[in-house]
Amino acid sequence: MGILIFVGPLALGEVETRFIFCSVASLALFNRLNEINVDKAVELVLSFMNFNGGFGCRPGSETHAGHIYCCLGILSITQQLHHVKADLLAWWLCERQLPSGGLNGRPEKLPDICYSWWVLASLKIIGRIHWIDKDKLVRFILAAQDEGTGGFSDRPGDMSCLQKTLKQQGSV
């Protein structure tokens, strides 16, 4: 069994959920999860869980929708979703929906169209996607579309970009 080390670009020592998710997902795609200590990977991911049911990028860090998605992805791939407090987590995720219908990644931040992916995918994984106000979110997403290019911006009135367009398309 391999050594469990998940580091960021150029081995700068940054260890966090994105790298773990990419590693676990890649190994699963190639049917090679046996190359790592899956129990240790799950243990590490569970150490990122916070009191509100969410996950940060490392133990003790702030809950963030992007890291929730990565951790849920890892737990789903490793068949360990039973550790998740699904209703508590879904409540936190649904609280990310603002009066505009858009979603943010953490409290007190502006809505950003990319969170239509991170939040909806997370809610889908835990079977609570129906908890979000779909109609309000659709209005927000459509308002963020650039009529000239067809692309999407982070929020209505901003310039569209490829990354935001891709994430929005994934959420649909």
From TrEMBL:
Gene3D superfamilies in the record: 1.50.10.20
Record bears the keyword Metal-binding:
yes
Q: Which UniProt keywords apply?
A: Metal-binding, Prenyltransferase, Repeat, Transferase, Zinc
What residues does the Prenyltransferase alpha-alpha toroid domain cover?
A: 11-160
What highest taxon heads this organism's lineage? Eukaryota
Question: What are the protein's GO molecular function terms?
Answer: metal ion binding; Rab geranylgeranyltransferase activity
Explain how, and how many, cofactor molecules are bound.
Answer: Binds 1 zinc ion per subunit.
Presence of keyword Metal-binding:
yes
| EC number per UniProt | 2.5.1.60
Annotated InterPro entries: PGGT1B-like, Prenyltrans, Ptb1, Terpenoid_cyclase/PrenylTrfase
Q: Give me the Gene Ontology terms describing cellular component.
A: Rab-protein geranylgeranyltransferase complex
Cofactors, names only: Zn(2+)
Which reaction(s) does the protein catalyse, per the Swiss-Prot or TrEMBL entry?
A: geranylgeranyl diphosphate + L-cysteinyl-[protein] = S-geranylgeranyl-L-cysteinyl-[protein] + diphosphate
Task: Explain the purpose of this protein.
Answer: Catalyzes the transfer of a geranylgeranyl moiety from geranylgeranyl diphosphate to both cysteines of proteins with the C-terminal sequence -XXCC, -XCXC and -CCXX.
Family classification: Belongs to the protein prenyltransferase subunit beta family.
What is the name of this protein? Geranylgeranyl transferase type-2 subunit beta
Organism encoding this protein: Trichonephila clavata (Joro spider)
